[in-house]
DNA sequence: ATTTGGCACTCTTCTCCTCTGAGTGCCAAG
DNA sequence: CTTGGCACTCAGAGGAGAAGAGTGCCAAAT
């Protein structure tokens, strides 16, 4: 249906349009790529490509621009992920290796991605579901207020204040802390509810109220409502890529956690890249943007996702290479800690 | 030098320009404000104001626009901070009261400020220097890796990974943890170095290396290098306020921690508002923006700062009212926890 | 001494027009 | 199937003109 030359023409159109940001015409194409045929032939091919919906003209007498469908074909069949240069790899490695805690890893990652791709980077904090409990701490911070701190094996620290509504003795706290640690040490977060189901019955009557309160907060914060945290960086890059959509709408969308979550998509196989192009995006305001995302994690299990967002007219091979590389290195760093 | 009417004219110019976003002419002024004089008189006054540098014309036959100096006079002498409505106050209160930990307080605050002022909000995390140590936790997360967690009385949790470069026994860790807590409980963060100066000498020889390492990380993370964390929100509002500067430059500036730090200014009296207008700003790219900031904190001591950034052409009385109100409520929340 | 109406003047901005050129589609010939 | 030729279309640049907002200044009025 589309012979090799037509595909080559589509590829050339995408590449030229991405680099020049201007509709590309038949003459320019034969000049810049040695296709061995005349502009007229290219025009015929273009007509076919347009009919099939891979390219479009902004107005009658302009060159062609790839459609979302065209980019899709390009990404799926006409391009290969472009590996980073050695220098880039080394830069990533050392930059990430210097991070000193989880927050720092994430914030460095987001900056790195933004710089490397010159686009908006989005990084999700490592999910809790794949982690296990390293330590639970219960600290009084006021007479009727406790701080619950859970430290996981991925180095993430989760904290939550607890209102006890009545004074609590230090012994009761110490006892509960010991109990929690004994029960939970090494426990997968997903198993926490089971491990603690009978906790209130295991303590003396006067500690029961406390135990129940703490338990509910713990479950809520860690399991049910593990609201994933996401940070973004390189928003300034949006301003360079003059989107046809109002920039404001895009910025607004990026401030909503929910949108960001859906943007990155489901956590899946870390070795595969998700590319969502233009209208394939879940959100209205992101119709003229594309997202390249992937999972990352310690080992081969993805614990969270990261990616970048840019205009549909982006350098897909390069972006995909950068995203993949960064995800790999972050995984290594996480596995190493 | 400037009689009352000229000041009234300046005030009217600022108010009109802020609401219309267009240079204001003499006729429009007498129409919208009942100044009781003719346009010609206003023109004379305007000529004087312009000569003194309070207003300027974008081009010869346009109305007048306030200069930075004009805004400055307006803020200092011609306007009063506009208190929020009762409904707004209640909304702030309930919105903040529902926060469940420090992170949440800060993130709610930044969203609140951005929404209330329709500008970019900037909030600094409560500083550590005014806090005291509530608890120190030392947790092994790998054979040669510890996690140091410090919980302060403001509910902030500081964490840092430590490389020990040699296996450490659980007893050594427990011992050190007990020692640290005994020494530091309730200790002001500024006093931590003194309190721990002789720590290495107090432990047995085989724990000394560990103690030294932990100590240095602790001091570094808490005292010397308490890099203040700042978060921003409402960046989308920037796009609405079409700045004459390239939006990109502003976004870029806002991504740099250092710039943000200087933007908010020195922590001072929480009851006073800092307004920095246009070129009074420390950063080149923020020449067309103004910052309204103030300190906030539990009680009457400021522990950090917050504020908003917007075009110089902003509603100063309203913005100042919102910033002040939010700062107060956040202070209450922090004091209550 | 200040205020005021009148008036000429200056610019920006909007609209309308034309012209140019890139790029196309189509056709007939190779 | 490819190619050169050619007429056609249309966005965008550039220019002229008109409109309109606003000013500065002056002489008269208060």
UniProtKB/TrEMBL annotation, chains A, B:
Keyword presence, Lipid biosynthesis: no
SUPFAM superfamilies: GAF domain-like, Winged helix' DNA-binding domain
Chain ranges of the Heat-inducible transcription repressor HrcA C-terminal domain: 103-320
Database matches in Pfam families: HrcA, HTH_DeoR
Domain HTH deoR-type residue range list: 34-60
Organism superkingdom: Bacteria
Keywords assigned: Repressor, Stress response, Transcription, Transcription regulation
Protein family (similarity comment): Belongs to the HrcA family.
Function in brief: Negative regulator of class I heat shock genes (grpE-dnaK-dnaJ and groELS operons). Prevents heat-shock induction of these operons.
Protein's UniProt name: Heat-inducible transcription repressor HrcA
């Amino acid at each position: 249906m589309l012979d090799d030359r037509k595909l080559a023409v589509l590829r050339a159109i995408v590449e030229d349009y991405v680099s020049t940001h201007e509709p590309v015409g038949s003459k320019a194409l034969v000049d810049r790529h040695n296709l061995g045929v005349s502009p007229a032939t290219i025009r015929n091919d273009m007509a076919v490509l347009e009919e099939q919906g891979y390219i479009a003209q902004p107005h009658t007498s302009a060159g062609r621009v790839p459609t979302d469908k065209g980019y899709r074909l390009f990404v799926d069949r006409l391009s290969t992920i472009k590996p980073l240069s050695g220098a880039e790899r080394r830069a990533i490695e050392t930059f990430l290796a210097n991070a000193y805690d989880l927050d720092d890893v994430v914030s460095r990652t987001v900056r790195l991605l933004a710089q490397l791709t010159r686009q908006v980077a989005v990084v999700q904090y490592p999910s809790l579901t794949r982690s296990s409990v390293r330590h639970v701490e219960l600290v009084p911070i006021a007479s009727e207020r406790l701080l619950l701190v859970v430290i996981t094996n991925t180095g993430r620290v989760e904290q939550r204040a607890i209102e006890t509504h009545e004074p609590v003795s230090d012994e009761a706290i110490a006892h509960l802390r010991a109990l929690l640690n004994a029960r939970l040490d090494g426990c997968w977060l997903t198993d926490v509810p089971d491990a603690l189901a009978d906790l209130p019955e295991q303590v003396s009557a006067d500690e029961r109220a406390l135990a129940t309160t703490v338990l509910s907060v713990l479950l809520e914060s860690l399991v049910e409502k593990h609201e994933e945290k996401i940070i973004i960086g390189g928003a300034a890059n949006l301003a360079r890529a003059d989107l046809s959509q109002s920039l404001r709408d895009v910025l607004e969308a990026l401030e909503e956690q929910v949108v960001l979550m859906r943007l990155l998509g489901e956590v899946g196989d870390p070795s595969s890249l998700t590319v969502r192009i233009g209208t394939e995006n879940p959100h209205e305001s992101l119709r003229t943007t594309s997202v390249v995302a992937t999972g990352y994690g310690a080992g081969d299990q993805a614990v969270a996702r990261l990616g970048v967002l840019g205009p549909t007219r982006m350098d897909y091979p390069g972006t995909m290479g950068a995203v993949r590389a960064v995800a790999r290195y972050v995984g290594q760093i996480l596995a190493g800690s």
